[in-house]
Amino acid sequence: MNVLAICGSRNPAGQTARALNALVAGAESAGCSSDIVYLPELELQACRQCEDDGWGECRGGEHCVIEDDLTSVIQKIREADFVVFATPVYFSDLSESLKSFLDRLRRLCIHGASKDRIQGTPAIALCVAGGGGGGAPRCAHLLETSLQTCGFDVVDVIPARRQNLEMKCDILRRTGQWIATRPTSA
Question: Which of 103, 125, 129, 157 could cysteine-pair with 136, CB 3.0–4.6 Å?
Fold first, then answer.
């Protein structure tokens, strides 16, 4: 099983990466292969809302006119058996890099070919809050909604916060192991 982890954190040694690495380590310990993509390291532009109606060629579902790393990440999603989306929580919301990525992805997933290739892919939403941590549940809801709009089968939503991260990392390792043993059909 191939697990793709998409991370909206800029810090590969931060709390979000720590949580994501625990989940990935659990999946790898159970025999999964994995790949982690850090969105802030890629060239990803914001949606341009190309035409007056706010759409563009993406409305046909074939592609986005912006030539950046979006296409390569979508290809990795299509090749994955399971996708994990992880974000730090900023102002009770997703990181800017993950939000921008999902804004463009959902436009391609609402119509046409991309929808067919992503529809039903199992996914986990992971939101890690620093500070007081109160925004993690709201962020988790927003991420789940965005992923469902794209057509992912969201099988778990995991909010975490600085104060409970150690305990959550244990759960995330077990969650990664569960991914490897999860039946692939409903």
Answer: 129
